[in-house]
């Protein structure tokens, strides 16, 4: 346990060391981590809804078993991340209230509907692919509990992405209708997946962003645009392998840059969905609130049991 306040934090960050829960830290650092880790956890549990919608309609027992495992993993990632947030001195009940009251966000990607089975493939391949791109650097985040939670989460995410790729791989080798279904899903999920990395680093939409401060604190290791570019560079060859045409006519390899150039992102859509005007915002929060209310008896029972256990220990 490090006694020293203030200077020690700066020295640890300057030396690219870990900050642990009992270390002195600036309140802004604490609040930034509570905001990011809580919203990450909210994204995981809200993210259970789009795919959960297909568990009863998966095309085979094998697909159903894989999807159940994935949705359960997302719940586990959420619980893991709420636990990491609680090391910063806030209770998950408070964080869930903030989610339910719209005071905290979840990833906008989950406000898009899952219209066909192919969407489960596109989500695994694109959304979990983007999540991995974003979460691998977080394994080196300066805040210890968050970084350690990410190591386990990333291992499970790679299974999520591979099963999504395999769903699309099978569909693209199926009937014309199945190929069209896979292409349609990629068309609908590609641009929202690019938005997952957050607003651009420059220009109007970058206003009020946290990137500079988060990078100074070693929370963010790459800027939003850098990670987005790495994601595009990784996905284009995979789309070619699948035989899927990504819905961006400007997508082209740029030898000079050593990256793929890609078209403009519709940031108006991004901010519109963040403001609550996406296809599924109301449904996602209503479902979440209902699940929370339905789960009240479990929380009461767990608390009653914990109180009894504590009383027993005192006897
Ligand atoms: N959806 C919703 N809000 C978003 C967003 C998105 N895709 N991207 C950015 N924002 C919000 C930010 O939260 C911030 O708003 P706030 O101040 O109210 O929190 C504002 O837009 C400005 O964005 P910044 O880039 O400046 O904010 P950050 O520095 O927090 O960076 C981030 C945004 C890159 C998402 C970062 O918070 C992060 O890395 N979070 C952890 C990863 C995460 O949350 N991933 C979400 C998906 S999880 C998932 O997909 C699970 C998988 O298993 C399916």
Short characterization:
The chain is mainly α and 315 residues long. The chain is 66% helix and 2% strand. The longest helix is centred in the middle third of the chain and has 29 residues, at 144-172.
Can you give a write-up of this model?
The two termini are 33 Å apart. The protein has 13 helices and two strands; from the N terminus they run H-H-H-H-H-H-H-H-H-H-E-E-H-H-H. It is mainly alpha-helical and 315 residues long. Helix 4 packs antiparallel against helix 7 (144-172), helix 6 runs antiparallel to helix 7 (144-172) and helix 6 (118-138) runs antiparallel to helix 10. The longest helix is centred in the middle third of the chain and has 29 residues, at 144-172. The protein has helices spanning 7-14, 27-46, 48-52, 61-86, 92-100, 118-138, 144-172, 176-195, 211-216, 224-242, 267-277, 281-294, 296-314, and strands at 252-254, 259-261. The chain binds 3-hydroxybutanoyl-coenzyme A (3HC). 3-hydroxybutanoyl-coenzyme A (3HC) is lined by residues 35-36, 39-40, 43-44, 47, 74, 77, 105, 107-108, 127-128, 131, 134, 157, 195-199, 209-211, 214, 220, 224, 274. Residues 35-36, 39-40, 43-44, 47, 74, 77, 105, 107-108, 127-128, 131, 134, 157, 195-199, 209-211, 214, 220, 224, 274 line the site of 3-hydroxybutanoyl-coenzyme A (3HC).
List descriptors.
disordered N terminus; binds 3-hydroxybutanoyl-coenzyme A; phenylacetyl-CoA 1,2-epoxidase activity; Ferritin-like; 66% helix; oxidoreductase; two-stranded antiparallel ribbon; 315 residues; mainly alpha; EC 1.14.13.149; 1,2-phenylacetyl-CoA epoxidase subunit A
């Amino acid at each position: 346990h490090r006694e020293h306040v203030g200077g020690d934090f700066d020295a640890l960050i300057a030396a690219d060391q870990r900050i642990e829960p009992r270390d002195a830290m600036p309140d802004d650092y604490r609040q930034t981590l509570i905001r990011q880790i809580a919203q990450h956890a909210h994204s995981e549990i809200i993210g259970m809804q789009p795919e959960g919608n297909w568990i009863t309609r998966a095309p085979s027992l094998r697909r159903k078993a894989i999807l159940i495992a994935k949705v359960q993993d997302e719940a586990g990632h959420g619980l893991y991340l709420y636990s990491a947030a609680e090391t910063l001195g806030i209770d998950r009940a408070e964080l869930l209230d903030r989610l339910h009251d719209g005071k905290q966000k979840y990833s906008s990607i989950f406000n898009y509907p899952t219209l066909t089975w192919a969407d489960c493939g596109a989500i695994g391949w694109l959304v979990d692919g983007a999540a991995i791109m974003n979460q691998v650097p977080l394994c080196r985040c300066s805040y210890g509990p968050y970084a350690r939670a990410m190591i386990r989460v990333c291992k499970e995410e790679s299974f999520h992405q591979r099963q999504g790729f395999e769903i699309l791989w099978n569909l693209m080798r199926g009937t014309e209708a199945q190929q069209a279904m896979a292409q349609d899903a990629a068309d609908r999920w590609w641009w929202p997946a690019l938005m997952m990395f957050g607003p651009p680093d420059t220009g109007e939409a970058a206003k009020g962003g946290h990137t500079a401060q988060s990078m100074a604190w070693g929370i963010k290791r790459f800027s939003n645009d850098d990670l987005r570019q790495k994601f595009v560079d990784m996905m284009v060859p995979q789309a070619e392998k699948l035989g899927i045409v990504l819905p961006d006519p400007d997508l082209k390899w740029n030898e000079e840059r050593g990256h793929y150039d890609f078209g403009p992102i519709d940031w108006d859509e991004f901010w519109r969905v963040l403001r609550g005007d996406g296809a599924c915002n109301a449904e996602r929060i209503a479902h979440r609130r209902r699940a929370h209310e339905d789960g009240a008896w479990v929380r009461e029972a767990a608390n009653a049991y914990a109180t009894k256990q504590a009383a027993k220990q005192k006897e």
